[in-house]
Amino acid sequence: MFDPDIAPSGTLLGLLQRGRGDGTLHALTAPRPEALAALNHCVLNDPRHDWQVENRSLYYARLHLDLHGDLDAIEAHLFDPEDLLDTEESRTGLALAVLGHLASYGRGDALALLRRYAAHGSNWAWALDELALRDDDAGLRSLAQPVLDRFPTDPEGEAELAATVRDAFEPRPWRLWADDPRPAVSARVRAAQETGCFDRWQRQMRPTGPRPGWSVEAVLDWAQQGLERGAALHVPAARCLAAVAGPDDRAEIVRAAR
Q1: Distance from C-alpha of 132 to C-alpha of 247, rounded to nearest angstrom
Q2: Domain shared by 100 and 144, yes or no
Q3: pLDDT of res. 130
Q4: Is residue 176 domain-shared with residue 252, that is, in the same domain?
Q5: How confident is the model over 82-118, as pLDDT tens digits?
Q6: pLDDT at position 170, please?
Q7: Same domain as 130, residue 14
Q8: Are 74 and 125 in the same domain?
Q9: In total, how many domains does the chain have?
Q10: Could you list the residue range(s) of the whole structural domain that residue 48 is in?
Q11: CA 75 – CA 197 distance, rounded (Å)
């Protein structure tokens, strides 16, 4: 997570950063350039302390529609050279989610921008998830080759592809590509799906999660290991702690929370 810079609550920017309902009212009565500048600042500099638990994209997308905003600022942000250096989801995730909602409201320019970013951007998987919910089959098929080209055809690349297919949040594009009329596309995706299914079966046969009898320290270590490899285990870890923790473990849990 990160600590965003939040403007004072009495300002237009501060209201929008906090997702306040009266922020929309203030934005609609403010000069349009000022309102759009504040809105774009929020979309391009995610103001949430934890984007995983706080939804803000629909709020910003609706205001964007009300202000009849263009996508120039979002496009410049997504395709800035920094996109190659900073691949964290927190840099582009909110902008992509806003584009997804705009596409749902019929903004063809938002849909086209999502397609272009899915083909060329660093956070392409997020863009693909947004498109999986909103794009038609033809649009998704056009992305099959650009996405597959991201993965080398050597064993390491195929293993990475299989893991990506297995862990995809929205499976629709991969299922569509598995039936693609182009053999080079369909054969590779099907092989990745088969490998992913086998990997999932192996993980079920050899689970690595907490076992009965684990200590609080063991559960916390397991959650920390997941964080270090990019897996969000805080929810299952909290459930495990509820099962194994006792009154004597309070001090250790408080230390970990800090």
Answers
A1: 46
A2: no
A3: 97
A4: no
A5: 999 999 999 999 999 999 999 999 999 999 999 999 9
A6: 93
A7: yes
A8: yes
A9: 3
A10: 1-135
A11: 37
pLDDT digits (tens, 9 = 90+) for 210-242: 555 678 888 888 888 877 777 777 777 787 877
- What are 209's two structure tokens? 């999660």
Kindly state whether residues 40 and 68 are assigned to the same domain: yes
Q: Are 92 and 134 in contact (CB under 8 A)?
A: no
pTM of the model: 0.76
Q: CA–CA separation, 66 vs 62, rounded Å?
A: 6
On the 0-12 / 13-18 / 19+ scale of CB atoms within 10 A, 137 is exposed
Considering the domain architecture, whether residues 192 and 220 belong to the same structural domain is answered as: no
CB-based contacts of 138, cutoff 8 Å, min separation 6? none
Residue 201: band (very low, low, confident or very high) from pLDDT cuts 50, 70, 90: very low
What are the structure tokens assigned to 93, written together? Answer: 């995730």
Q: Is the dihedral of CA 60, 65, 68, 74 positive or negative?
A: positive
- Mind giving me the DSSP string for 31-50? -HHHHHHHHHHHHHS---S-
Which residue among 105, 135, 165 closes a domain? 135
Same domain? 106 vs 201? no
Residue 194 belongs to what H/E stretch? helix 183-205
Q: Are residues 13 and 109 in the same domain?
A: yes
Helix (H, G, I), strand (E, B) or coil at 85: helix
Rounded to whole angstroms, the Cα distance separating 113 from 23 reads 27
